[in-house]
Amino acid sequence: MARRFALPPAQDPFVNTPLISLGPGADGAERFWITSWNSVSGTQAIMITEDGRSEQHRFPDHPGFYSAGPEDADTLWLCGDLAKIIRYDLRTRAVEQFDTGAPYALMFGGMVVDPVSGKLFGLAFPPPDPTAISFDFRNRTPGSVTPNPCAEHYSASHFANGDGTFTLLAFNPDLALLRWDPATDRVSRTLVSELLGRPVRWTDRSTISATITDDTGHVYLPEVGWYDPLGQRLADGPEASARMNWFALRDGTAWGAAMAGEMLTVARWDLASGKITELCRIPDGTIQGTRLTESGRIVAVTMFGTFYLIDAEDGSLLHARHVPSDSIGHVDCLRRIDQDRLLGTTFITQRFWSLDLRTGEGEDLGRAAPGGGEVLQTWKIDNRVYLAAYTGAELVEYDPGRAARFPENPRIVAKPATGMRPVAAADDGRVIFYSSNHHYGELGCVITRYDTGTGLARYADDPLPGQAIRSLVLDSAGTALLAGTTMDADCESAPPSDDHCLFTRIDAESLAVIMTTKAPAGTRIARVRGAIDQDRFLATLTGTFDGRSEKRWLVLPAAGPWPELTLADTRPLPEAATVVVPTGTAGLFVLRTPSGFALWDFRGDNPVRLADVCDDPKAYACEIQDGSLHVLLPDAVLVDDELLSRFS
């Protein structure tokens, strides 16, 4: 019989979203706005004044708005999805939604909202093509949809050119300066590589989430120089000696910020002398969440909703307060600590929580890993829990018997230099294996092997050039890893170099590739799911086959040589299943279908449905550990310690 427990709330993450000024309110105090990301409870916004008075605004039907801009003192335009624009009335809290005519894509910061023309402009990446949109918000009508205005995928920020036009900065693979004319909706492009006369690889927004403009109208682009937007050329000017995102410039002084782990450094740059002075460090601060007020002080809202007001001259802390933002978020991982405790991690918060299965009480345990991102893989080995995190692919060790206090507990025990997102995991009860995608814009992956007994880590970078491993399963002997790959970069952020995916066998000790075989044509992701018996493993394919987008399954022999695989060797997953979860018992798998989760037996010639696990279509994940089933619903977790034992 399944037991149901309410999920514990954790602090919402204020990430990837610029802190923007809304100008003065009725009382004259400058107001600022920032939103969280939460696909379960909906995003929440903090509107906070320079003196720390705050309001919270909830959007239960929207996961987040990475772009925002004011039309006037009481009206905001918000966007998190290229396909739709949101108008928000700050007084009445009325929400209006408008279609743009573009496909869905996650829009990051940088959207232009121009009150003069009554138009807005933004860019996002609905694969395979970057797409720009304009929208006439004065008349509430879609404007233009421009496919391929550049090859660059992600927007970062924008600046006014001084003639009624704007430049939006987009990056990956190059840095593109997209010039938009609201009068005509014409978009033109200048690449930084063209300005510099050399190849440029620009794959992050850490120095371009905001820009500074001097008295002549020239804009500073770190590592590029001063840019004249009217002449569309580089201009002479002082260069900063530190790599930072410069977010404000007044009277010859610029202020900038740079991340290092979970700490944000804020500094002041005297342009005349070139001297850069560190002012302060903000725990859990973000580059996008730090700005200069009209009165000349620094305001910051951290990743976890703490507000700081800082003296911009000497870095003195003037005001600090925490704005409560606890919400139930999307859970990425569950791991049973013991019979009575469950550990969970929530999306893009880098936090983790515990749930007491006797009392139903939960506790937010704080950070699990450095930087921004989330924990995506977990293991329970002996009396420790291990967690691997995006964006640095760090592996951390957590001792549940001690107080949680990162970076002491959990503590970092492995970190591959080229890793970003951990996407595949296995272990043999002592040694942990995981594969992490390379960073955005880069093909391939890195495998980490960590011995929990000795504390030694080993890495294999790019073991299959051009391919990223998306699944890892130990063979029956425990001497080799069976893996499936994708030819795509993370989030399709770079074009593939291959036209196929692979199944591969990798030595568990040396991490050397033993053999490979191509997945059938049309495959975009190949995965090995788990053992059917000692000699056979269940594998799945995601792709387009015979003109249909679907998921298919096949049987992969444990030992080689592997035959050449064709579509005839595969069959569609039963009941249009989209997720396959190994149970730990050979041949038994839990499948997610449109109606929920069910237990299936793949040992015979045809898969057999054995039992419902959860018939709620809102259930979105199932984690299985030591014979116990854990099913995630938007606001609860179902724990069943008995069902699998009836069929094992």
Automatic annotation (TrEMBL):
Source organism of the structure: Microlunatus parietis
UniProt-listed InterPro entries: Quino_amine_DH_bsu (IPR011044), Quinoprotein_ADH-like_sf (IPR011047), WD40/YVTN_repeat-like_dom_sf (IPR015943)
Gene3D superfamilies: YVTN repeat-like/Quinoprotein amine dehydrogenase (2.130.10.10)
Name of the protein: Uncharacterized protein
